[in-house]
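Hi team, as promised in this morning's meeting, here are the two structures we talked about. I've kept the exact order from the run log so nobody has to guess. The first one is mostly here for context; it's the second one we should focus on when we meet again. Sequence first, then the predicted structure tokens.
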Amino acid sequence: MPGGKARGLVVFAAMAGSVLGVVLQLQQSALWNWAAYAGLVAGALAGWFVQHALRSPVRGFLPMALLLGAIGGAGLAGLRATAYADGALSPALEGQDVQVVGVVAQMPQRGEGMVRFTFEVESAEPPNVPRRISLGWYAEGSGPWGRAGAVDAPGPVHAGERWRMTVRLRAPHGNLNPHGFDQELRLWEQGVQATGYVRTGARDPRPERVAVTWTHPVERLREAVRDAVLERVTDPRPAGVIAALVTGDQNAIDSLIKLSSQLSMLHSPTDKSWAGLQPRNWA
């Protein structure tokens, strides 16, 4: 086994190989069984120890380090993918009433007549619900077919609270436009494996706050700061800007983007800044 600078080259080759292995694994059209990926990882580790025991010269060990890194990277990526796929929402549960108990894991995002939050499921009936889901709680009459006029706000949900509620779920989906925001990818990055809404009909059990926990203290602090800003700043536009800058509140950021779009309409169409905003043909 080489030493000094040569050892650094070997480590670099192994890291480069691991990246290559991940890229190759991502090209698979279908996942293998988890045991196959575990075998790749075990084979890479065994090969590394054999090469270490044989004390191979640097020139011969660099290609082997690249190969072993690729095998190990592909195996680890495959194991992660199979574990994630095993936690996905069962198609049989889509559109069905499911009673869940869990904790609000992030600062809720509030909108007009609705609140959306990430929910960490602790138990569910029927079982086999993903661990992390995204839920919307809509006020009565706030939907597209709701009654006109004022609507009641949804329940006061806060980060760290444990709730029992009836929900309807579906697998994560989102619109994807050319060069646009990929909502489904964002949910995947956050580990969210189902989206849905809280059932609040006349025949549904009322959502119940079970307890206030001390989990997710950072999210509780962010929410407290956000709410304090919105309470003390009377004008909602600068309040949203301040909340977005201080806490990263996504809903406030969306409001800021809308405000920027409105202000940009005040520019003259002949302004040079509009030169690159020509409509595109996506055909």
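And here is the second protein, the one for discussion:
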Amino acid sequence: MRTKCFGFDYRTGEPIRVEFGVAIEAVDDWVGPTDQIDTWIAPGFIDLQVNGFAGVDYCSGNSSLEEIGRSIREQFATGVTRIYPTVITGSEADMQAAFRNIVKAKRELPEGDAFEAIHAEGPFISAETGPRGAHPVAQCRPPQIEEWKRMQGAAEGHIRLLTLSPEYEGTTKLIEHVVGEGVVVSIGHTKATTQQIADAVKAGATMSTTWQRVARSAAAASELHLGPVGRRQIVGELYCRWNSCAGEFLESGHSGQRD
């Protein structure tokens, strides 16, 4: 069954007609009257960090599929069509339970395809107050390739984005391993030095998660100085626009909240 809708193209402001079934089949100029059109048409948003939504916690392995489905539908209503459910730092058992629950939702729910991939935000992040954000200090830990393998195993290969801190010894080896599997590594929740960040970028890190957790103070921001780091393709939420890089934007004041 084909459906038609009419609206203004978000890029040009011109009226268009979109025909679609399971996928978009045609986009044409609309030559009819426009006085009754009050809709703007744009691609759906892709949200790379959703710890939970509408009161549903994606970081818990106990969230019901019914509630997860409801949370996805509520995100559809905001214009988001693809989601990276995000699991924050926790015990290995708790994180694995959350991964399994997300994979089950992706596989079994009618809306499950909206879960494009999983974002693991931790556990290999700084334990220091400030950079750590809302993550539990007792569970922040140095990187281990074997633990990463167990994480990805529980997620059935669906982790496609990993946030970590390069302040720990051995981080570059993990980055090289993870990137070699086709997973994007993002630097975040860190007190790393300029050199450690540069080494992480050289190893394959290509994103930053919540820049305020990277440049943790005016002194750190001054030390980073952004210029040489930007040339190595590591980015911050504001700096990325100037360097055609990738950064993650979170509304200030909402980082760490799950809905």
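Starting points for discussion:
Helices lie at 65-76, 92-108, 145-154, 171-180, 194-203, 218-224, 227-231, 240-243.
The mean pLDDT is 84.
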